[in-house]
Automatic annotation (TrEMBL):
Transmembrane region(s): none
InterPro entries assigned: ArsR-like_HTH (IPR011991), HTH_ArsR_DNA-bd_dom (IPR001845), WH-like_DNA-bd_sf (IPR036388), WH_DNA-bd_sf (IPR036390)
Organism encoding this protein: Actinokineospora bangkokensis
Domain HTH arsR-type: 4-97
Protein name: Transcriptional regulator
Domain of life: Bacteria
SUPFAM superfamilies assigned: Winged helix' DNA-binding domain
Length: 119
């Protein structure tokens, strides 16, 4: 069984790298609920505005969020489609491992000796 995805290896790497950080996961959750400005996001964290901008840039490269300008503000919103595609990939991995676990279980059940303890 081969894991097949419409995501390239580079895209998968960027997505899971971006989601490996707790702050970035929190940013994704916030901007999936509602669009927020980068400065509004920055006020939610005990880090500099520049650090939040860097987190948003990582998420943007992974295409988990999109930015748009409204006057002087940069607004960030999440892209649920990219998360959906990542979830589908994880679902494929789960199917693969469940299939392998079932195969191991079948092999182990074939090798079990019958109970021959007659006393």
């Amino acid at each position: 069984m081969v894991v097949d995805s419409d995501l390239s290896s580079d895209e998968v790497d960027r997505i899971f790298h971006a989601l490996a950080d707790a702050t970035r996961r929190d940013i994704v959750a916030r901007v999936l609920r509602e669009e927020q400005s980068v400065s509004g996001l920055a006020s939610s964290y005990a880090m500099s505005f520049a650090a939040v901008q860097k987190h948003v840039a990582v998420l943007e490269r992974a295409r988990l969020v999109m930015k748009r300008r409204r006057g002087r503000e940069q607004l960030v919103r999440g892209d649920p489609d990219v998360l959906r595609r990542a979830r589908l990939l994880l679902d494929e991995y789960e199917r693969l491992w469940r299939h392998r676990a079932a195969a191991i279980e079948d092999i182990l059940s074939e090798d079990q000796p019958e109970d021959r303890s007659e006393k």
